[in-house]
Structure formats: structure tokens, C-alpha cells
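ESCALATION

Customer reports they have been waiting on this structure for their group meeting. Please prioritize. Original submission:
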Amino acid sequence: MKIHPQRFSRFLAVCLALAVLLYALTHLPGGEDGDPPTYKAEILTVTKSENDITAFAPGSAQYEVRIRIDSGPYEGTETTITHRTLNNPAFDIHPAEGENIIVRAENASYAIVDYDRLPAMLFLLLGFAALLILFGGMTGAKALLVLLFAVLLIAKGLIAFILFAPSHILLWTILIGAVITLTTQLVVNGRNVKSAGAIIGTIGGILIAGLLAVLAIHFTYLTGVSEEQAGMLKALYLKDVDFRELLFAGIVLGALGAVMDVAVSIASAQYEMKLLAPKTKFHALVTSGLNVGRDVMGTMANTLVLAYIGGALPLILLISAQPDISLVHVMNLNMIATEIVRSLIGSIGLLCAIPITAYATAFLITIRPRRKKREQLHEST
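Update from on-call: job pushed to the front of the queue and completed.
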């Protein structure tokens, strides 16, 4: 098997970039200066305390937990801590021997913060990366690279910007979405008319979705504070932030991936059609692109709607368990209306991206041969 030096060097460069981005993502700062430090730990033994605290909190329990610190300056240290549960399924941690946890230093002792879920998530990430590279080769490696870049850009760019300089969130969301689109297309598909058509279609669809999001949020009186986490964030950290702008950012970023998928599918089909049949005219390319878009839009719209329904499933079950609440009341709840608006705007942006991509790609594909013909005629004369 002959190894191509140029391809091998590109592969090494992509692998190095992936390693750097993965390191950056797994070493994001965990808090502000002055916050109590957190460490990894392993539970060695667990003993249920005989002290009965159920009189003060029915259904609660108290444990004596022996742990070993596995990170930080006190790595290897063993200590015993007291841990209580308060009969709250959303936040209670029931310790068991051998489990990995995160603890916080607290008054010369430690308190259990949460489970250490990072190893399992990294295992899934590595499995995903391996399969992507195995089946996609260099294209798969590039796709993984731009995915990590997009996550890093949002985490270190948009989120940091909102936390420390919360103004012009609408503009920054569109700009970051455009940067992600440009990077994805140029890195994965290269610099060609196919990428240009997909970029135009994606940005066009996102701009329309963004405009509709601004109008819909205003006319449906959405607040952006539809969940408990958002309420806590508003009360504790982002008092001066307009949460309607955060809702706008969530809608645009949520729709970006699906809109980009549709645009790439259409542009790729038109590009391949022109390669196989160079004499294909503009109108035939547009018709082909629109047909591909019609085939894709059903599944992509379902993807958006089902994704939002899946995320709101506990809320839907909670409301459905209350037989006395009317359908009109349910549909006008801020939480429900937010999810409906989110899914509809994403689907509309996706639908608008179809004709934009089809016409833009067809124009770009057919305009280049015309220019070449004109240049050849000019040279011959």
C-alpha cells in the first residue's frame, strides 16, 4: 500500500487539530475566581446513618460516605463525609460503593456535588469520532474538526460574550452562525461552487428564521423564561439580560444544523448532476434541486419538531396528567408556546433554504461555463 505524503501530512494535521480542540473543550474553566474548588473522588464505603431526619424532611436519608480524592492537591487523601438526600428526584444523589463523584471543598471537609459523568461522555465522544473517521475517512475527520470548532466557538465566544458583555446578542448569534456555516463548508467540502451554494442557502434560511423569530417572540409575548433553570439564571446571574434575545439565539442555533443539512444535500445533488451531464441547463438544475429539497424537507422538519417534543416530553406529561386544564389554556402557556414557536420557525427557515440553495447553486454552476466560453471566444478573435 503506497502512502501519499501530502495526504498523510493532512491527516496528521487534522488529528493534531482535533486533539487540541478536544483538550480545550475538556479543560474549559469551571467557575469564577473565589468559587469553592471541586475535585474528582471515588466512593469507598457507604453506611446509612442511624440518625432519623425523616421527621424534618419525610422521605429523606443520611449517609456516612468514605471517599478518596482523585484530583487536585489532596489527591489520594481519604476522608469520611456526611451526605443527606431530601426526597427530591431531580437533585438527590444516592451514593454507592465504587461510584465516581464530584466533591466540593467546604469548611475543611467535602460535599458531594454530582456524579462524575465526564468519563462516560468522553467514551461516547471517542466512539463517535472513531466511527466518523472510520466510515468517512478524511471527510469524517474534517466533519469532526468543524463540529468541535463550532462547540468551542459557542462555548468560548457566544456564551462568554453573553455572560460578560450581554448586548447585541441578536447580531452576535447571526455572525457566529455564519462563521460556523463558512467553516463547515470550506473545511469539509472545499472551496467550490457546491460549498458557495450551500453557504448562501444556509445563511439565507437562517436570516429568514432570525427575522421570523424576532417577530414571533414579540407578537406571541414570549418571555424566554419558560424553565426553572432560566428563572434561576435570570435571578442570580443575568439580571440585565433580555431573555427574549437568548430565546432568539436558541432558535437560530437550533435550526442551523438542519438548515445546513438541507442546503448541502441540494447543492451536492446539483453539483453531481452537472458533473455527470455537463450540458444540463439552469432551469433543469433548479428543478432537480427543488425536487431533492421536497424529498428532504419532510424528514428534516420531523427532525426539528420531534427533537423539540423529545426535549419537552416531561413538561407535556406533566400538563397531560392534569385533566382539568383546557386545551386553550395549554396552548397559551409560555412553556408550550415557546416550543411551538421554536419548532415552527426552524421548519420555516429550513423550507426557505430550499429554493434559495437551488437557485443560488444552479446559478453558480452554470455561470462559470458561460464565462469560460466567453473567454475562449475572446481569445480566438
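Sent to customer with the following note: The CA atoms of residues 25 and 152 lie 7 Å apart.
Escalation resolved.
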